Each structure stands twice: as C-alpha cells, then as structure tokens.
C-alpha cells in the first residue's frame, strides 16, 4: 500500500509540475533552470529524483552558457587586440608628433648660419658683439681720420705761414738785393768818375 501511495504521489506531483505554467524554457538561465529542476524533482526519502530530460536541459543551458562565455571571451580578446593595436598606433603617432615637436622647438630656438646651428641667444649675443666691435672699429677709424684731418689742417696752416714767411723773406731779399745792386752800381759809377778825374 505504501508503494501505491508513493507512486500516486509521484505521478500527482509530476502531473502537477507539468500542469504548472512555466516560463519559456529557452529563455531560462542556468540558475533558473536549476531551481526549476530542483522544484520538479521528486523526493524519495532524503534523495531527489531528477528526470533525465531535466538534466539534459540543464546540461544544454550549461553548454550554451559556456559557449556564450567563450564567445564573449573571444570577442573581448579581439577587442583587446584591436585596442592594443590602436594603442600601439597611437603611441607611434604620438612619438612621431613628439619628434616633430622636438624638431619644431629646436628650429624655433636655433638658427643656422652657413650650415652651423646656433641657439638664438648665442646668435644674438655673437651678432651684438660683432656689431659692437664694428662700431668700435669705425669710431676709432673716424677718430683717427678726424685727428689726421686736424693734423693736416695744422700742417697746412704751418706750411702756408712758412710759405708766406718765405715769400716775405724772398721779397725782402729781392728788395735788399735790388738796393744793394743799386748801391753797388752807384759805387761803381762813383769809382768810374774818380778814375776819370
């Protein structure tokens, strides 16, 4: 009688579990499927009796879940690989830009003269020194020319005064000579007169 009662309970619980409205079986996740399997299982003493069909459905969901996770893992790996590739590309691009920026910064702080690169501060300092040296040399040359001009003017004035004095001396000498030659002629004439007498 006990066996019959047990069979009756089993069949009634099975009928009840099949008659209970279940959510769509394809949309259940693993945890929901396990709870459903556990609820649909029949109890025999301390053990649960689970139908093979229910186990197969749980196994199918496990396989589907594992396949989805594998697919998600592969997708994630592909995304990671793509992101790594983009990162490498961006790093290369950044390195190229940094090199370009270094060139631009170098070009903005340096100047090339006759193929020799100088920093702009050194070039400005050198140019200032050269210009200052040229100004100093020109001012020295100007001062020497000015001194030479004043010396030439002074010598010209001295030469003019010497020439004037020489002309005066010459004039005086000529007058003296003329006077002396007249006096000499007069004396000759007197001498001739004395001889004639």
| Helix count from the secondary structure assignment | 4
Report how far apart the termini are: 223 Å
SSE string: HHEEHEEH
Report the radius of gyration as a whole number of Å. 66 Å
- The amount of helix comes to over 70%
Strand order of the largest sheet: 1-2
Assess the beta-strand content as a share of residues: 5-15%
Give the uncertain stretches in residue-range form: 4-23
Mean pLDDT, as a whole number?
A: 82
Whole-number count of domains: 2
3D shape? rod-shaped
Structural class: mainly alpha
The count of strands amounts to 4
* Major β-sheet annotation: 2 strands, antiparallel
Explain how this protein is built.
The protein is built from four helices and four strands, in the order H-H-E-E-H-E-E-H. The protein has 197 residues and is mostly helical. It has a two-stranded antiparallel sheet with strand order 1-2. It has a two-stranded antiparallel sheet with strand order 3-4. A hairpin with a 2-residue loop joins strand 1 and strand 2. Helix 2 runs antiparallel to helix 3. About 10% of the residues have low confidence.
Question: Would you kindly provide a brief summary of this structure?
Answer:
The chain is mainly α and 197 residues long. Helix content is 83%, strand content 7%.
Topology:
Blueprint lengths: L1 H18 L10 H11 L1 E3 L2 E3 L2 H58 E4 L2 E4 H77 L1
Antiparallel strand pairs: 1-2, 3-4
Keywords:
197 residues; two-stranded antiparallel sheet; 4 helices; 4 strands; mainly alpha; 2 domains
């Amino acid at each position: 009688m006990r066996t019959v009662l047990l069979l009756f309970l089993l069949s009634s619980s099975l009928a009840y579990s099949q008659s209970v409205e279940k959510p769509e079986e394809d949309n259940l996740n693993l945890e929901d499927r396990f709870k459903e399997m556990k609820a649909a299982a029949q109890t025999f003493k301390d053990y649960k009796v689970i139908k093979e069909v229910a186990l197969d459905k749980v196994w199918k969901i496990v396989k589907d879940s594992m396949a989805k996770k594998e697919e998600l893992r592969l997708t994630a790996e592909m995304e990671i690989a793509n992101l790594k590739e983009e990162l490498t590309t961006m790093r290369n691009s950044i390195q190229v830009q940094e090199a370009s920026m270094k060139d631009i910064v170098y070009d903005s702080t340096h100047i090339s003269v006759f193929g020799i690169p100088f920093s702009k501060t050194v070039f400005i300092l050198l140019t200032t020194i050269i210009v200052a040296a040229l100004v100093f040399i020109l001012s020295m040359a100007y001062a020497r020319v000015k001194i030479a001009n004043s010396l030439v003017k002074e010598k010209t004035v001295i030469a003019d005064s010497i020439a004037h004095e020489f002309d005066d001396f010459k004039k005086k000498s000529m007058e003296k000579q003329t006077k002396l030659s007249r006096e000499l002629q007069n004396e000759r004439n007197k001498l001739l007169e004395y001889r004639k007498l």
